[in-house]
Design a protein that fits this description.
alpha+beta, 4-stranded mixed β-sheet, 13 strands, 11 helices, globular, Alpha-Beta Plaits, 5-stranded antiparallel β-sheet, Uridine Diphospho-n-acetylenolpyruvylglucosamine Reductase, domain 2, 3 domains, Uridine Diphospho-n-acetylenolpyruvylglucosamine Reductase, domain 3
């Protein structure tokens, strides 16, 4: 990329929104994978109009553009291959919380956890909970169709995207979807852009569906198994049960060995693996729901099952889970994290 193009970008954005030093280029050269490639320049648009200006310059000079949020993705989607790294973090305003229509309208650079906290203060709930929620942006979540433990019950980001504002490569600003849950006129362009990793256009604004808050009582079910086939059958049985958990995590014997110092008494030593399930319900119903799920696990061969309503005991369980990734990273200098999905029925195999 020539110095003239960098000067042109500074002219349309301002000098503080265009970085081209070697150190700055390295900073925006990677995501949460081990992929890395230097951009030629890094830009920070603050509005949809500025995104249009950047794309106009890029198109005129045939320079590739790579949109980026906070860089927490695990797919390499935001890793640039030269060209322009378009960092969306300055477009970080929550534009509207509409309680009557139960939706939020936000810019792409809003941090996921900040949105969750803001809508919670107004008595609403935004379910998607990627592990990077305290860092990741809504635009990045849309680009990756991000999920987290709660997606077992609530689904991934795409289920909550009602509409988008997107800048296309030719500078056209496209608005998709609307403010209604049932929006079925014409092509479903909103779903087309969700999960597209910035390849179809730059998402600048997102309209999100919100829910009423979940029931206030939280319980944790811990079920341990002597073999992983039985554990896999338990996942299918729990998924099909009316008392289905809100989230579900599997921890095998290798992971349990890594966090042995954190192993709670509810998980016996020597088991092949354990399931950790979060359950949300009303206080008067929580104990019954936990009992129902305990019976499901015993019915498919669990060797130890505990339904926990005590907050301290639950903290121990989830502290073990949170300690797992750092503990694995301490074993060797390179830890490669992968997201893989299989049909529920294939898990016992």
């Amino acid at each position: 990329m020539t110095d003239a193009i960098v000067r042109e970008l500074r002219a349309v954005l301002g000098p503080d929104q265009v970085l081209a030093s070697p150190a700055d280029r390295v900073t925006y050269s990677y995501d949460a994978t081990y992929l890395s490639h230097l951009p030629d320049v890094v830009v920070f648009p603050a509005s949809t109009e500025q995104v249009r200006h950047v794309l106009a310059v890029a198109r005129a000079h045939r320079v590739p553009v790579f949109p980026r949020g906070s860089g927490t993705g695990l797919s390499g989607g935001s890793v640039p291959l030269g060209g322009i790294a378009l960092v969306m973090t300055r477009m970080n305003r929550i534009l509207e919380i509409d309680r009557d229509n139960m939706l939020a309208r936000v810019q792409a650079g809003v941090i996921t956890a900040h949105l969750q906290e803001t809508v919670r203060a107004q008595g609403l709930f935004y379910p998607p909970d990627p592990g990077s929620a305290r860092i990741s942006t809504i635009g990045g979540n849309v680009a990756e169709n991000a999920g987290g433990p709660r997606s077992f019950h609530y689904g991934t980001t795409g289920r909550y995207v009602l509409g988008l504002e997107v800048v296309l490569a030719d500078g056209t600003v496209l608005k998709t979807g609307g403010m209604t849950t049932k929006n079925v006129t014409g092509y479903d362009l909103t779903s087309l852009f969700v999960g597209s990793e910035g390849t179809l256009g730059i998402v600048t604004e997102v309209t999100l569906r919100l829910l009423p808050p979940p029931p206030p009582a939280r319980g944790t079910l811990v079920a341990s198994f002597a073999d992983l086939t039985a554990l896999g059958r338990a996942i299918g049985a729990l998924a099909a049960h009316p008392a289905r958990p809100t989230s579900l995590e599997m921890v095998d014997r290798h992971c349990l060995a890594v966090v042995e110092a954190h192993r709670p008494p509810e998980i016996p030593p020597g088991v092949a693996g354990a399931l950790l399930c979060e359950v949300l319900d009303w206080p008067e119903a929580l104990a019954g729901r936990l009992r129902a799920l305990e019976e499901v696990c015993r019915g498919v061969g669990a060797v130890a099952v505990s339904g926990l309503a005590d907050a301290g005991a639950q903290r121990r369980i989830w502290a073990m889970r949170e300690a797992l990734s750092p503990a694995v990273a301490r074993i060797k200098p390179t830890k490669i994290s992968e997201d893989a999905t299989v049909p529920i029925a294939a898990i016992p195999a």
